[in-house]
Amino acid sequence: ATLQQMTSPGQPSIHSAFPKYFQALFTASKLHVFDLLQSRPGLDAAQVAQELKASVKGTECLLEACVSLGLLKSKGRKYENTALATRFLWSESPFSLHGYIQHCDSTVWPLFSHLESAVWEGTNQHEKAFGKKSKDIFQDSYYNSQEVKLRFMNAMHSIAKVTGAAVAKAFDLSSYKTACDLGGCTGAMAYEFAKAHPGLSVTVFDLPAVVEMSDHFHPLHTNSRVSFVAGDFFKDDLPKADLYILARILHDWPDEKVHVLLRKIADACAPGCGLLLSEIFLDEDRRGPSRGLLQALSMSEGKQRSSTEYSLLLKSHGFVTAHVRHTDNLLDAMLCIKV
Ligand code: SAM
Description:
Layout: H1 2-7, H2 18-30, H3 33-39, E1 43-44, H4 45-52, H5 56-68, E2 72-75, E3 78-81, H6 83-88, H7 98-112, H8 115-121, H9 126-130, H10 137-141, H11 146-168, E4 178-182, H12 188-196, E5 201-206, H13 208-211, H14 214-217, E6 226-230, E7 243-247, H15 255-268, E8 274-279, H16 290-296, H17 307-315, E9 319-329, E10 331-338
Parallel strand pairs: 4-5, 4-7, 5-6, 7-8
Antiparallel strand pairs: 1-3, 2-3, 8-10, 9-10
């Protein structure tokens, strides 16, 4: 909402504030300002500074900037979270984007600060930003350190919690009994599918480095219809299922690798099996949505595609597109059936 307000016509000068806006948001989030003010609303700048062990001057500037951006509100120089901050920035909220914001701060921002080189070279800027080359972004970069891995997984978890219910409810899946969420990460999306479809059991399939952390995200194993299997979806046998889910997977890979993965899924599928794809679908004229076109600038190995492009890739492996849904909640979805 704040972004929309910032980009609305009539406020052209505010565009120059974009980098400052995001740094204020990243810093307040990293310092847990929204967590502190959620548990103790009404603190003044000196009290917040004392809790954060930061300077009073710096803290006051940060709090005032957050008020101007609609993230905090102030009454008589005492501060509390706005409804927006309570919903999306407090790290304990069910829809918290805290993990995603930390990932943007630590990984996306450094990459985008080398955007000019990325455009010159047409490649990702991992080496410049982080000092090492990365061919497979997951195995060479995110999962090399426990800290970076957890940060990435937290980011995926927070986005999946915000978008998962809309994707899970996009289609009538009552004819399917078993699903396999390929690259299902923390299982956040799988839990939404299990919640939305009481007759469905979901296996999350992801790399061993990810699956070994599943207890960290679901310590209570709240749904016995969700289970985890470790493996590499380019090399290993896929768990048997009558519905395969690919959520935010294909955009990471070039067509050649997409074909390898789709061929494996097609081989595992009997006629009538489903494949549910969830991605940002580019408009057919490639004029939007800007969140997809901006994501493409990270110059990963993969690319952003329209629903027609995805349909054609799937068709070449015997899947016909049955339904396409724009969910209005960041991710779109497509249900395809194996013929
Ligand atoms: N599907 C999840 C979601 O929508 O929140 C996570 C999407 S994340 C962008 C991509 C996922 O694919 C990560 O969890 C990653 O570990 C997994 N992945 C990448 N390469 C893989 C491979 N070769 N085999 C299995 N999983 C892989």
